[in-house]
Amino acid sequence: MKKRIGVLLSGRGSNFEALAESAAAGRIPNAEIAIVVSNRENAPGIERARARETEALVIPSKGLEREAYDRLVAAALEEKKVDLVCLAGYMRLLSPYFVAAFRNRILNIHPSLLPAFPGLEAQRQALEHGAKFSGCTVHFVDENLDAGPIVLQAVVPIKDDDTPETLSERILREEHRIYTEAVRIVLEGRYRIENRRVMILPEKVSEKR
Amino acid sequence: MKKRIGVLLSGRGSNFEALAESAAAGRIPNAEIAIVVSNRENAPGIERARARETEALVIPSKGLEREAYDRLVAAALEEKKVDLVCLAGYMRLLSPYFVAAFRNRILNIHPSLLPAFPGLEAQRQALEHGAKFSGCTVHFVDENLDAGPIVLQAVVPIKDDDTPETLSERILREEHRIYTEAVRIVLEGRYRIENRRVMILPEKVSEKR
User: Fold this and answer.
1) Euclidean distance between CA atoms B114 and B75, whole angstroms
2) How does residue B208 score in pLDDT terms, banded at 50, 70 and 90?
């Protein structure tokens, strides 16, 4: 049976589209996006999901406490028997309840080399700090912002004439690449966690199992 | 006349030796190490300096307040008419007095991609955090720890079987390379600072001046 991915987003969801295309093209073998959930009604990612005939659900968070909201989202994902939750520009911290419900089954992508430049506008932060390299990070998600064990990172050089827009664009290409790779690794169980270090196991070892 | 570099160190001073060799070999043209100062009597870097017939001074910091100590060091550097101060494993924060006395003329090298992993044992911090890339940073020094505008950085991938020692060794090779390059750039005035961003100017532009 195909592995089922649930995507949470709040905006355009370009990483959702990258994952959907990777699954369709077999770069993430034997997997599909089972559902997309947005906390924002007007998130363009919702329309994009529907255009791909992927089920897309808006669950507005207004007026709900964090855990009450997360219970609604978790129920929607569990009903779809989701194996892995991928955050793609999801602008909410997850509650301990949600993290426990999907322990080691939630991934996020962040546009910096964490632990540098967590939070919003990471590309602008990197530029304004004068860093010479930035990049992106796929990590397991815990209760803290942009924390959790790191699965993959990619490095992107910063140019003197970069703006937040040009840098974001170059980082985004790497985001799509490593998010696909990380989802594949995690769905195949091809990793081992020691404290916070995620060791990637070679493909052959996993095929032998 | 040759540009004069003063080196401050507290330990073995491998970056002092790298700079001394780069100056001797012309990779830092028209420059020399005018003096090495250590705050620790038993710093191996002192012996290494003397073996190179470089003047080496121990100024013990014991019992002195930060600024009082820094005034002694600054006086020693000024007596030698130092153009640039290079920290090479110097285990002290500089006082505002010292920073003002050598405004934009103090460089440090740190074994991480700052702002990630400042402080002691940066290589071990990177490993234990599970980062997939680390590296090193040459930056101008201000009153804060491992802060100040970044001149150059280099990236070093972290391997699953790295120990703090193997990672430190690979980073150290990059440290020697970029410290040499950064000292050359700064001595040639081949940079421009905008807020915290250090823009490197091409060599040709500087030759035309």
Assistant:
1) 30
2) very low
User: Is residue B35 a contact partner of residue B80, using CB atoms and an 8 Å limit?
Assistant: yes
Query: What is the rounded CA–CA span in Å between residue A97 and residue A91?
Result: 17
**Structure-block tokens of residue B86:** 């290079």
Each residue of A121-146: pLDDT tens digit?
Answer: 999 999 999 999 999 999 999 888 88
Q: A205 CB near a chain B CB, below 8 Å?
A: no
Taken in order A114, A116, A121, A126, is the CA torsion positive or negative? negative
Which chain B residues are Cβ-neighbours of A196 within 8 angstroms? Answer: 128-130
SS3 B15: helix
H helical segments located in B54-159: 66-79, 96-101, 122-129
Name the residue among A155, A160, A196 with its Cβ closest to that of B128.
Answer: A196
How far, in Å, CA of A203 to CA of A205, rounded? 6
Please tell me whether the interface predicted TM-score (ipTM) of this complex is above 0.85.
yes
B72-105 per-residue burial string, b: 16 or more CB within 10 A, e: under 16: bbbebbeebebbbbbbbbbebebbeebbebbeeb
**List of chain B residues whose C-beta atoms are within 8 Å of the C-beta of residue A149:** 130
What's the whole-number mean pLDDT along residues A148-165?
Answer: 97
**pLDDT for res B204:** 66
CA–CA gap between residue A54 and residue A6 (Å, rounded): 10
Alpha-carbon distance of B203 to B1, in angstroms, equals 20
Q: With an 8 Å Cβ cutoff, is B195 touching chain A?
A: yes
Let me know: does B9 contact B29? Beta carbons within 8 Å: no
Residues of chain A with pLDDT > 70, as a percent, come to 97
pLDDT digit string (tens) for B79-120?
Answer: 999 999 999 999 999 999 999 999 999 999 999 999 999 999
Is the bond preceding A115 in cis, omega lying within 30 degrees of 0?
A: yes
Which of B116, B127, B150 lies at the smallest CB-CB distance from A132?
A: B150
Burial (CB count <10 Å: 0-12, 13-18, 19+), residue B207 = exposed
